[in-house]
Amino acid sequence: MKHSKDPFEAAIEEEQEESPPESPVGGGGGGGGDGSEEGRAEIDQTAEEDERPVDVRRPAKKSKTSVAVAEARNKDDDEEEEEENMEVELTKYPTSADPAKMAKMQTILSQFTEDQMSRYESFRRSALQRPQMKKLLIGVTGSQKIGMPMIIVVCGIAKMFVGELVETARVVMAERKESGPIRPCHIRESYRRLKLEGKVPKRSVPRLFR
Amino acid sequence: MSNTPATAAASSSKSKAAGTSQPQEKRKTLFQKELQHMMYGFGDEQNPLPETVALVEDIVVEYVTDLTHKAQEIGSKRGRLLVDDFLYLIRKDLPKLNRCRELLAMQEELKQARKAFDVDEKELVD
Description:
The structure holds 2 protein chains of 2 kinds.
Chain A: H1 7-14, H2 67-70, H3 80-91, H4 99-110, H5 114-125, H6 130-141, H7 148-175, H8 184-197
Chain B: H1 32-42, H2 50-78, H3 83-89, H4 94-125
Helix pairs in contact in B: 1-2, 2-3
Subcellular location (chain B): Nucleus
Organism (chain B): Camelina sativa (False flax)
Family (chain B): Belongs to the TAF13 family.
């Protein structure tokens, strides 16, 4: 399914700093239970949808942010211009209807280093592609019609799952006192831990042929 | 172990050692590029290792497949597969559940906005 033919999203593809026709109301403040672990700030996200050139929705899971944010220091950066641009985009979309949350977000974002900002940008902008997901869902269900809401929801769930995987893998690496890029062994251990926590759906019938 | 093309992604096989078992066959990746950006956003390096990305993709495909199968089981009781089946499955996972609600609300709003936009355009033309 093609991502966007509608005027809003097409226009935004051209100019990424265009303001939305209306500012959507957020779905509610951070609902995640483990939102403030390790000093991570909650990031709420609404209406990022308009902003995305590629696929919608992005990332901001309520309780998860990138590890870089967790290490946030109060460093002022010379890259004010860059940050400003980012902020301009992000301020146009209230993170939630709550002005206090917005203000909190603003203070956090203004203190990001360039590195953190780039990571945060990737976090917000990345998304699994809807046509691919649709293909996958049609293949799994066997039915020919999959509604848009379903694709969007599954993309969102999958993205959060990737987040859990990567973050748990980083935890595993910290425990093993390793550094560098994440390796498959870390992901496997992370996956095993998520299974133990029950976050991975278990197959009622074991997978026979791989 | 033979690799089947990932068109019916449910049956795509995964090799345990994240490399291809036969040199001639190409693994069909669904989400590779986006996954790289996503993993960077979540804490990996700017360029994650390709084997890591491949493994994460396999895991995600399996996750979506299993989740969808379970949703179908639930949905079969009432006839069709609905979004609510997925929401039911993640009801215990609050961050995901809230995120999904947010996404659905946003989508609804965008739909309304588009409708309003189209109506306005038509009025302008007339």
